[in-house]
Every structure is written in structure tokens, then in C-alpha cells.
Design a protein that fits this description.
heterodimer; A: 228 residues; alpha/beta; Rossmann fold; 6-stranded mixed beta sheet; 4-stranded antiparallel beta sheet; globular; B: 813 residues; alpha+beta; 6-stranded mixed β-barrel; 20 strands; elongated
């Protein structure tokens, strides 16, 4: 099937990332080329030190490649200023962290609404969307609670809700089940799979076989190089 | 929402830490305000001898000796070229005394012709009677003169609870006079000291028992003053001298200027301590919220929003601290003006915002969270070259501060630059010193206890935040030591002068000041049992060059000490007051020429002595020298030393009886000394209390920062417990760390503070006030400050350890 490359959410062409260290330059990524289509759930796998975290940072527009070309939602990342990158991140990317990273001082509802607040949406829209995604992830009854009162699974569901509430083009999930027991982890994977089936593009960095198995395909990284 | 997420929740959870920051700013503001206001009050209370009518007055006619006879006025007033010639009586007085003459406040009684426009008093020149032209209130001349009417400042009226028509007592030369308030000067009056009581010159003559005499005549020329001067001098015929009025060097004023500069500069350090603690508090807040900040940045929050959030936190601390600071300052010094409160808030916000900017900018540079591993800290390590550079920069800052201290200018740059350079030097030296201590501890052998070795490892890699808290403690201790040392040194010098400069136990003078004792009086008084010796003196006002001075002749034969030894050739010798010696640029061995009505008197300076006695400098000579030069053999005072076992009251009664029916004034010099020193003692006591508070809050800041530091390391501590370290070992380790931090800060602060005081006294004061005051280190007070700082800093392990131990040893970060 011929791919319509212009529709790809991610287009990566020979991206490299080199860091300077006391021992000399370190090539964290070498000629990484891959694409991700809309609605695809891609697993990013590799041993420690393979460049997984570096690639995730680049995809999240937190870091830039040293060379190569990366397009996110049709935008050439290399051409964007820092300010524009942040704007791109706000608008088009949702992130799910291994450690949930919910803000302790905010309620579940407030945590989930954060991306919409940052995008300056009006209150009515924020309320509607937040209610919808809380229901989607199954934590609507926890809306008024603080993160300290949530279980790991509940916290991760809230984090997923926060990641999808603004309907980003791409969701990056970094070891989303890393801090969860296997049963809860399966529930989270099932939730992510459901979101992907609804048309959401998801890239999951993971060590877990069960998570990779739920994805449409896997991109392997070893010593900074990628293979499908 | 971002503010609430990052700050609100943190403040709710760590309310006591936020409170520490607020109190830190409050104390800094309170210290600064109290010192500024106390300085102003002190100077007002001392009643510095300003030339009230100097502005607009072309000449002053002053006597050789003590008083101008009334006939002098006639010589001057009708001279061609003289527009006005106003007789003035100007005396120190105590107002608000009881009918027995007890209590009261020091003031000046100025007798002038209040029915004429007062030259040089701003705002009262439209020709209407008296100083009330602007207010539109007339004075009834009958009330002013007939009922001993007085015009007082609004500050005096408020202090004594006076209003128009009220009466109050004034003590002058042991006589209590009853005065009536004819009117109150508006608060906006310029050109008038708030501690001056104006009366009509006739009233002043009656009160002072000076009928037929004045202290001086103020002359305004109709045309060119230079054209008038020769004619004026000729008209006076040598019975008086003509001077151009200039602000006279006031030894008290210079001394308080020196104190004021020191305290003003130290007030800036109080604010700096508060600012450093806010820096620390905001930095701690950021450190504990590092994960949240990274999350928000990952979600796309603009870094500028992070900066604004934390600067806003600092500003909130500053505003609350400013309010609280004004309230605290009001306990120490009365604050009457709402604008002072507004200033306090602005000051608090300003200091806190400046202190918050650096940590807020650092927060904005935190990497957005992606795969966060929360719980570990990355110690900031500086290379050797950077540490050496810091050390050199620190030494350079001290050197530059010393250069600023030696500059004669008292502008804000030099006044505040000096202590701030010392503060900066202290901060710069922290890291190299810290590194040295850590290296020493780290090199401990295996024989050392595990807690000590673990502490050494940690101290070697301590985050910058502990360094900031340490700097705050060092600077606070430095400020306290400098405060205590400078104020003790000033107090010691003042008390020594009061003890030695106001010689004798009792001073006896003829009442009315115009009189003198005959030659037989000293012997009659000396014969009273209990009187050890009597010094007869005579004081004459004259000039040396253009400076007004007092020449005091003392009866050398009766003194237990001599005024130096006569120079070869029999040239008379004199002791010269230090302030005057500095103004004349003379020292022991130099010659000084004193003007007299007959011929100039040349004396050789035998010694220079501290002297804060009055506005003029004092030259002390033998009474015989004074007699020969001025033709004046009179005695206008006796200074008595009495047996310690004798009853002073009995002796005073015996003196009065022996000299009856002559009216005399007797002054117990102990009372005089304590009245003089009490003003300074009050200010010094206030300063000491404030310094102790500053040190306390800085120490609490160290404790707070250390507690946060321990909480940040809780997972490392848990790991230590996992590999076998007991709770006791860890608790000891934390205690050792806190002790080393507290000792380092206190020791550094002590050394810098003592150095600062030494520079202030030996470098700044000779330039500012003409002579150095010996350094006195109040070791007991300093030891108390250091002990307090160390003990409070040791609170940190007590506060933090239980929370740190609650983390399970095997819990993942």
C-alpha cells in the first residue's frame, strides 16, 4: 500500500543526536529514520543506553536533533524557534510519564484541565472536555480528589486524561506501566489501545513485552540506531 | 492556576518555611527602619548645635569671653549699612521638668526679638509679626512677653502634650522657670530645630538672669556685607569679634554622623540578610517543586510564566514582610507617618523581588520532564580554578570595601558600598571555605566514626542552596559582631570621656552665669571635710583662625595631673580636644595661636584628648596663662573631687552654707554623665536587640534550608539504611553536618564582623570625625550571639530527621 507521507504524524529522516561529554562526543542517535501514520500505535524498544530517552525527548520537542530532518504534524522541527517549539508541544503533543507527574496542589480535574488552560480555552469548553475525558478513562468520580489520594493506576489514568484532553496529534508515553503492577499495567495498555483505535497516534517507549504486543509495530533501537 | 500549583500548595504544606521567609524580610525591614528612625531621633535629642538663623545672617558679633553687654547692641544697630541687628540668647535647657527640676528633655532656649521677622527662618519673611506670618496667627505681644510666652515646635508640643496656652517648666542653671505656649510652629517649618524653644529675648534674659547681656548679635547688612565689615569691627572697638556664621563643627554631630553612617550601612546588611533568606526560601520552594516545574515545562508552559510565578512568590513574602516589619519597628521606635509604612512595604517587596529573580530564572531553565527519576539531587561541583577565583574575588571585595571606607565622601555609594563589599566578600569566600572543610573531613581515616565520615562526604558536595543559607548566617553574625563591636567601642569611648572629660564629682558655679567666685572661694571649699581637691577654672570663648573655641584655664597647682610640661623657653602649653586638633591639623608638639582682645596667645600642644563637651573645641591651659593672655583672673567654676566614702548631699549643703548668701549652682557630674550617655546607650541597646533578632532569623533560615536539604536526600538516607546504617548513625551524621555549617557560618561572620568594625573605627572614623576610636570587642555579647546562632542552626536535624526516617528503606524513588 502506498503511504501518503504527507499525512504522517511523524516523519524522521536520518536524525542524529550527539552530546559532548568529558570523554568526548557521544552519538546518542545515528541516522534514525522512521514514520508514524495517524492512528498508529508504535512501540519504541531497546536496552538501556540505546537512545530511547533521547529519541523521546526529540519527539517531544524538548530536544533538537543535531542533524537530519524531523517533521511533526507537518512542521519541520529544525526550523522552529524555541518559542515555536513550545507552542507546538502545547498544541500537538500529549505526554504520559512513567511517574505520572501530576501536580500535587491541584485536583484531578485541575490537573486534567491544565493543557486547555495553557491553550487559553474558555471555561465552558474546558469543563466539557474535561468531563468527557475523565469519563473516557474511567475516573470521573475522582474529579475532586488530590493526586496523593490516588492509587498508581488511578494516577496514570488521570495522566492519560491530561495527555488527550486537548486532542493532540501525538501522544508520547514514556514507560507508562513502569511503576504499576501487571494487572494495572494491562488496564492501562488496554486504555491506550482503545484511544489509539479511536484514531489517536501514540508512541510508547517501553521495556514491557505486553505493552509492545499491544502496539501496531515496534521500532527497535540499539546503540543509537533504529531498526523496525 | 500555575501560581497555585507551584506556590499555593507548597505554602500550604510548608507554611512554617514560608513564615520564616516573611519574618526574615520583616526583620530586615524593621532593622533598617528602626535604625534610620532611631538615628534621626538620637540626633534630635542631642540637639545638635545648628546655626538656626545662619541662613540670611551676614555676620555674628560674638564676645571675647562670655557675654556681650547690652551697650554693644547700640554700637551695631544704628551703624550705616546695617539692616537689622538682633540680640540673641542661646542656652541649653531642660524642658518638661517637674517643679523640683527633675526629668525632662534636653533642648535649646533661644531668646530673640520674636516681634520682628526672623532672618533666615524659611517662610517667615513677609514682614508680619513673629514666625506666624504663614499661619496667619498673630501673637499677642503681651502674651509673648508678659506671661513668659514660648514658641515650640510641633514635635515638642506633641511629646509634652502641649497646645496654645499650656504651661511647662524649663530648667536652666538649676532654676526652674514657668513658660507658657504662645504658639506651636507648624510641622513643615524649616530652618528651626525641633528641640528649640523660642522666647522673647527679654524673657530669656530674665530666665537666664542675664539682664543687660546677650550671647551674640546677628547682623544683616543693608548692602554689601564686605563693605560693612570694616566699619562694624571698628564700631566694636575690640570689645567683641565679628565672624561670618558657618555651620560649626559639632563634635557631637560628627560623632553621631560616624555612628549614623555605621548604623545606616548596617541597616542595609539587615535587609541583605532578609533578602538572602528569601532567595533561599524561593530556591528551596523551587527545589521541592522541581518535578512539577519540569512537568509544566513539558506541557508547554512558557519559562517566563515560571519566572513570574516565583518572583510573585517572593513579592508576596516581601509585601507581608514589609507590613510586619513596620509593625515590629513601631515597637522599637515610634512610627507616626503612614508613608513610613508604605516605604516599609515597598522596601520589603523590592528586596524580596531582587532576591527572587535569580532562583526564578534558574527554575525556568530546569529541563522539561520526560523520563523523570525523582528523588535524587545532583550536587553542584565547582572546579578548583573557579574556587580559587572566588577566593581571590572575596579578598578583593574586602580590599575594595576598605578603600571605600577610607574615602572622605559620605555619599550613599561609599556609605553603603563599604559594608556591602564586606557582605559580598563573605558570600564569595563561602564556597572555597566549604570545600576546604569538606576536603579535611573527607580525608578522615577509617578510625573516625562512620557518621563523621559520611558527613564529610556530604559536605564536600553540598548544593548551592546550603551555601546561600550559610552566607545569610555569616552575614547576620558579621552584622551582629560589627554592630556590637562598633557600638561598644563608641560607648566605651563616650563613657571614658564622660568619666575623664567631665572631671570631678561636683561642679559648682555662680548662679546666673555672669558671676564669678572671688579668689578665696576655692580654699574655703577645699577646707570642707570630704573634699579631696578643688580645681578652679575659667572659660572664655574666642577664636583660633576662623574657628570658635573655648579656652579653659585650670588651676594647675591643685590638680593631681598637669597639662603637659612647659616647652623650652617657657612657652605656654595646652591640651587640645581631639575634634579641634583634627580641624586645626595639629598634634602634640605643634603650636596654636589663640585670639584675645589684647594680643594673640601662642601655645604649644602638649596632648590631644577626646572631647565631646560642646559645639566649640576646647583648649585647656593653666589659669595663669589665661590670666596673662586675657587679663582675666576670675573663677567661674569649681570642680570638686570628693572622698568616695563621703555623703555628696552633706558636702553640697556644706558648700552652699560656706558660700552663702551667694547663689550657686551645683551639678552632680554623675547625673550629667549618665544623662549624656543615656541617649547613646538607648540607641546602642536598640541596635543590639535588632542585631540579635537578625542573627536569630538567619539561623532559623539555615535550619530551614538544612531541613529542606535533608528532605531532598531522603531517598539517599533510605538507601543508607538499606545497606546497614542505623538511625542513630544517620542522625549523628545530620547533626555533624548542621554543626559544621553553623560553626563555619559563625566563625566566618565573627572574623569578618570584627574586621569590619576595625576598618570602621580605624579607617572611616579618622576621615569622617577626625579621630579614631579604639576597638572594643564585647566578647561576652559576641559569644552569646555565636552560641545562639549555633544552637538554633542545630534545630535542623531535629526538625528534618523524623520526616526523613519515615521513608521506607526499600521504597523506590
Amino acid at each position: 500500500m502506498k503511504r501518503n507521507l504527507s499525512r504522517d504524524v511523524i516523519r524522521s529522516v536520518a536524525i542524529c543526536r550527539t552530546y559532548e561529554s568529558a570523554a568526548g562526543p557521544v552519538e546518542a542517535l545515528r541516522d534514525v529514520t522512521f514514520n508514524v501514520e495517524p492512528g498508529e500505535m508504535l512501540a519504541l524498544r531497546g536496552p538501556s543506553g540505546s537512545g530511547k530517552s533521547t529519541l523521546v525527548s526529540i519527539l517531544a520537542c524538548v530536544d533538537r536533533p543535531s542533524s537530519g530532518r524531523l517533521e511533526l504534524a507537518g512542521q519541520d522541527v529544525a526550523r522552529l524557534s524555541q518559542r515555536a517549539l513550545r507552542h507546538l508541544r502545547r498544541r500537538t503533543i500529549g505526554i504520559v510519564f512513567q511517574n505520572f507527574h501530576l501536580l500535587d496542589a491541584l485536583t484531578v480535574r485541575e490537573n486534567v484541565s491544565l493543557p486547555l488552560v495553557l491553550l487559553r480555552r474558555d471555561r465552558t469548553e474546558i469543563a466539557e472536555r474535561v468531563d468527557r475525558v475523565l469519563e473516557l478513562v474511567g475516573v470521573e468520580e475522582l474529579a475532586g480528589r488530590y493526586p496523593a489520594k490516588l492509587s498508581g493506576g488511578q494516577a496514570q489514568r488521570v495522566a492519560i486524561a491530561r495527555a488527550v484532553v486537548h486532542q493532540p496529534a501525538l501522544i508520547l508515553a514514556d514507560e507508562p506501566t513502569g511503576n504499576l503492577d501487571s494487572r494495572t499495567g494491562d488496564e492501562i495498555v488496554h486504555l491506550l489501545r482503545g484511544i489509539a483505535r479511536a484514531g489517536q497516534t501514540i508512541v510508547v517507549a517501553t521495556h514491557a513485552d505486553t505493552v509492545a504486543a499491544a502496539c501496531d509495530r515496534t521500532l527497535w533501537l540499539r546503540d543509537g540506531m533504529a531498526s523496525a | 492556576m500555575i501560581f497555585d500549583a507551584l506556590v499555593g500548595g507548597y505554602v500550604r504544606r510548608y507554611a512554617w518555611r514560608a513564615l520564616t521567609s516573611i519574618v526574615a524580610i520583616a526583620l530586615g525591614v524593621a532593622t533598617a527602619l528602626s535604625l534610620i528612625i532611631a538615628n534621626a531621633q538620637t540626633i534630635r535629642e542631642l540637639g545638635s548645635d545648628r546655626e538656626l538663623f545662619a541662613r540670611g545672617v551676614d555676620f555674628q558679633v560674638l564676645p571675647f569671653g562670655r557675654r556681650l553687654p547690652q551697650t554693644t547692641l547700640a554700637r551695631v544697630r544704628y551703624l550705616d549699612g546695617v539692616a537689622t541687628a538682633d540680640p540673641i540668647i542661646d542656652r541649653p535647657v531642660t524642658i518638661g521638668v517637674t517643679s523640683a527640676g527633675a526629668g525632662g528633655d534636653a533642648a535649646r532656649l533661644v531668646g530673640a526679638d520674636l516681634l520682628q521677622p526672623l532672618p533666615g527662618v524659611a517662610g517667615y519673611d513677609d514682614g508680619r509679626p513673629g514666625p506666624f506670618a504663614r499661619t496667619g496667627s498673630f501673637i499677642d505681644p503681651g502674651a509673648l512677653i508678659g506671661t513668659s510666652g514660648a514658641i515650640v515646635s510641633s514635635a515638642t508640643a506633641q511629646r509634652l502634650g502641649l497646645q496654645r496656652g499650656s504651661s511647662f517648666n524649663a530648667l536652666l542653671d538649676a532654676r526652674v522657670a514657668r513658660l507658657r505656649v504662645a504658639n506651636v510652629l507648624p510641622a513643615s517649618t524649616t530652618g528651626a530645630d525641633s528641640n528649640v524653644v523660642f522666647v522673647d529675648v527679654g524673657t530669656a534674659q530674665v530666665i537666664a538672669d542675664e539682664s543687660g547681656a546677650f550671647d551674640r548679635i546677628d547682623v544683616v547688612a543693608a548692602g554689601s556685607p564686605e563693605a560693612l565689615r570694616p566699619g562694624l569691627a571698628a564700631a566694636l572697638g575690640g570689645v567683641a569679634r565679628v565672624v561670618v556664621p558657618a555651620p560649626r563643627d559639632d563634635s557631637l554631630g560628627s560623632l553621631t554622623t560616624g555612628i549614623e553612617a555605621t548604623f545606616g550601612a548596617l541597616a542595609s546588611i539587615g535587609l541583605a540578610v532578609g533578602g538572602l533568606l528569601v532567595y533561599n526560601a524561593v530556591g528551596t520552594s523551587i527545589a521541592l517543586r522541581r518535578g512539577d516545574i519540569g512537568t509544566l515545562l513539558a506541557l508547554g508552559v512558557e519559562p517566563a510564566s515560571i519566572v513570574v510565578t516565583f518572583v510573585g512568590e517572593g513579592a508576596a513574602y516581601g509585601a507581608l514582610g514589609g507590613f510586619l516589619g513596620a509593625a515590629l519597628a513601631d515597637f522599637a521606635v515610634r512610627i507616626d507617618d503612614i508613608w513610613v509604612v508604605a516605604l516599609a512595604v515597598v522596601l520589603g517587596i523590592g528586596v524580596a523581588v531582587v532576591a527572587s529573580i535569580a532562583p526564578a530564572l534558574a527554575a525556568a531553565r530546569i529541563a522539561p520532564a520526560l523520563s523523570a527519576r525523582q528523588g535524587s539531587f545532583n550536587p553542584a561541583r565547582e572546579g578548583k580554578s573557579k574556587l580559587i577565583a572566588r577566593a581571590l574575588a572575596g579578598v578583593g571585595a574586602f580590599a575594595f570595601g576598605t578603600v571605600l571606607a577610607s574615602h572622605p565622601s559620605r555619599s550613599l555609594f561609599f556609605t553603603f558600598g563599604f559594608p556591602l563589599c564586606f557582605a559580598a566578600g563573605t558570600v564569595l569566600l563561602i564556597a572555597p571555605l566549604w570545600k576546604g572543610i569538606g576536603t579535611v573531613l573527607r580525608s578522615l581515616t577509617a578510625a573516625a566514626p562512620p557518621s563523621l565520615r559520611l558527613a564529610g562526604v556530604t559536605l564536600n558536595a553540598t548544593p548551592q542552596r546550603i551555601g546561600v543559607a550559610l552566607a545569610a548566617l555569616s552575614i547576620a553574625v558579621f552584622a551582629a559582631v560589627a554592630f556590637d563591636s562598633a557600638s561598644s567601642s563608641f560607648a566605651t569611648a563616650l563613657h571614658a570621656w564622660a568619666r575623664d572629660g567631665i572631671a570631678g564629682d561636683i561642679i559648682v558655679r555662680p548662679a546666673g552665669n555672669g558671676g564669678e567666685f572671688d579668689a578665696g572661694v576655692p580654699a574655703r571649699v577645699r577646707a570642707i571635710p570630704g573634699v579631696l581637691f578643688v580645681i578652679a577654672t575659667r572659660t572664655i570663648a574666642t577664636q583660633v583662625g576662623s574657628l570658635s573655641v573655648n579656652v579653659r584655664g585650670e588651676d594647675e597647682a591643685a590638680r593631681p595631673f598637669t597639662i603637659g610640661t612647659p616647652a623650652a623657653g617657657g612657652e605656654p602649653v595646652a591640651n587640645v580636644g581631639a575634634q579641634l586638633a583634627a580641624a586645626l591639623h595639629v598634634r602634640a608638639g605643634d603650636a596654636v595661636v589663640v585670639r584675645t582682645a589684647r594680643r594673640d596667645l601662642r601655645v604649644r600642644v602638649a596632648a590631644v584628648q577626646p572631647d565631646f563637651s560642646d559645639s566649640s573645641g576646647t583648649i585647656v591651659v593653666a589659669r595663669g596663662t589665661l590670666r596673662d593672655a586675657f587679663g582675666d583672673a576670675g573663677i567661674d567654676a569649681l570642680r570638686l573631687q570628693i572622698d568616695k566614702r563621703a555623703n555628696p548631699t552633706r558636702i553640697e549643703n556644706a558648700i552652699a552654707s560656706r558660700l552663702a548668701p551667694r547663689r550657686i549652682v551645683m551639678v552632680d557630674t554623675n547625673e550629667l554623665r549618665s544623662r549624656f550617655t543615656s541617649v547613646f546607650d538607648r540607641t546602642f541597646a536598640l541596635v543590639r536587640r535588632l542585631a540579635a533578632l537578625v542573627v536569630t532569623i538567619a539561623a532559623l533560615g539555615v535550619a530551614s534550608a538544612f531541613a529542606a536539604f535533608v528532605l531532598e536526600r531522603r531517598f539517599e538516607l533510605a538507601a543508607l539504611r538499606t545497606i546497614g546504617a542505623s538511625r542513630a548513625t544517620i542522625a549523628k551524621m545530620l547533626a555533624i553536618e548542621a554543626l559544621v555549617i553553623a560553626l563555619t557560618g559563625s566563625a566566618l561572620g565573627f572574623v569578618v564582623g570584627a574586621g569590619f568594625a576595625a576598618v570602621q573605627l580605624y579607617v572611616t572614623d579618622p576621615v569622617a570625625i577626625g579621630f579614631a576610636i579604639p576597638l572594643t570587642l564585647p566578647l561576652q555579647a559576641i559569644a552569646a550571639v555565636l552560641a545562639g546562632a549555633i544552637l538554633i542552626s542545630m534545630l535542623a536535624p531535629l526538625l528534618a530527621a523524623p520526616a526523613a526516617f519515615r521513608i521506607a528503606a526499600d521504597r523506590k524513588p
